[in-house]
Design goal:
Number of strands: 3
Structural class: mainly alpha
Distance between the termini: 29 Å
Shape: globular
Number of helices: 14
Largest sheet: 3 strands, antiparallel
Mean pLDDT: 85
Radius of gyration: 21 Å
């Protein structure tokens, strides 16, 4: 108890969010160590290599969280503007000159060090921060179509359109998360309904066209999107189909079935030998296999509890920017988590999004940690202002 108290005395902000972060990182290290067994065998290295990499990422993430949570959140208003402007040319560069992995140009390889990072991770963080800034600055004209709605909507459209060609699932998640943040930011409901209706219409027409065109006419990632939706549709109807997406889903189902209701078997996964990307996209299936439905439900509750704590911060935050920043980033992280878990249990088609702080990764862990740190910065400021008001 004394050790825990000594740690938490240096951590400001919502202690419950810090606790959620540490539990998620713990699950991450256990699950990644187990899930990388086959990968380690293929690469002819020990599991310890990937475990140490994840441990280093967790330590680095916690350090980033600590640094970002110590910065007054008001400074993030200006940082958000610069970060979003910087992310646009970076997304364009990635689209044309990015490093191709898994048939998609989503990464940039950093010179000298040779590390890759996914530019959409930076763009997601930048857009949510910039959206919070714009909404807070436009509060006096928030219901005006020309003065508030258009200037706020355009950055969302630009960012999502640049992400979509190589990472459609991320772009769709980011777009609808941004719309929800606009709703919280008091944008006129009629304007939100207009953009929501138009976006649904555009997506519907796009997928109708996607299925109408022959496969030899599809370019880039469009063929992948078509196959994923077709695979999900056939699986939903109970039809069997041979394909990568269907194979992933079937192996994830087997992993979940093996977990049962309650199980505690760290490192005992068998489906890690068959499931593609068990350490990233489908790590939730591995967690259920090793810890049962109870363990899977516990992970869900952790993310929901984190969202609840973010809402508490919003209620207490005295400034619009802090409130919108905390709730925007919180909703984005939890939405991503819920979609990843929904894919693992076959409620949604395969998307390729990771489980925040749990999946093995580089840039995703870094930018997710920064997002958590910014939320904690708002929480820290709320605590300090509350303490001053009491004095």
């Amino acid at each position: 108890m004394k050790f825990t108290e000594n740690i938490f005395q240096y951590l400001r902000g919502d202690k419950m969010i810090w606790l959620v972060v540490m539990i998620l990182f713990l699950f991450s290290m256990l699950a990644v160590y187990s899930a990388t067994g086959t990968l380690a065998y293929k690469m002819q290295v020990g599991n310890e290599k990937y475990l140490m990499k994840q441990v280093l990422m967790a330590v680095g993430g916690l350090l980033l969280m600590f640094v970002t949570h110590m910065i007054d959140y008001k400074y993030y208003s200006r940082i958000a503007q610069l970060l979003w402007i910087f992310s646009i040319p970076l997304l364009i560069y990635t689209m044309f000159f990015g490093t191709q992995l898994n048939d998609a140009n989503r990464w940039i390889t950093l010179p000298v060090v040779g590390l890759t990072f996914q530019t959409s991770d930076l763009a997601k963080l930048a857009l949510i921060m910039f959206l919070a800034r714009q909404l807070s600055l436009k509060q006096e004209q928030i219901t005006d179509f020309k003065e508030a709605f258009i200037p706020i909507l355009l950055p969302i459209i630009v960012t999502c359109l640049l992400i979509a060609p190589e990472n459609l699932s991320t772009a769709v998640i980011l777009f609808f998360t941004s719309i929800f943040v606009m709703f919280i930011g008091r944008i006129a409901l009629k304007h939100i309904f207009i953009v929501f209706g138009m976006s649904v219409l555009v997506f519907t027409l796009f997928f109708l066209l996607l299925f109408a065109l022959p496969e030899n006419a599809l370019k880039g990632r469009m063929l992948t999107w078509k196959h994923r939706v077709q695979s999900y549709e056939k699986d939903f109807r109970g039809e069997r189909e041979v394909g990568v997406e269907n194979y992933q889903v079937q192996q994830a189902k087997i992993a979940i079935a093996k977990g049962g209701l309650f199980k505690v078997d760290p490192g005992g996964s068998e489906q890690r030998n068959f499931l593609p990307h068990p350490y990233s996209d489908f790590i939730y299936a591995i967690i259920i296999e090793e810890y049962g439905l109870t363990g899977g439900a516990f992970i869900v509750m952790l993310y929901l509890f984190f969202l609840f704590r973010c809402i508490r911060i919003v209620i207490s935050a005295p400034k619009a920017f802090g409130a919108l920043l905390a709730v925007g980033l919180g909703i984005a992280l939890v939405t991503q988590a819920m979609i990843n878990m929904a894919v693992a249990v076959n409620l949604l088609p395969v998307t390729g999004v990771t489980l925040p702080l749990v999946s093995m990764g580089g840039s995703s862990v870094i930018f997710t940690s920064i997002a958590f740190g910014i939320i904690l910065s708002v929480s820290r400021n709320v605590e300090e202002e509350t303490e001053l008001s009491v004095v």
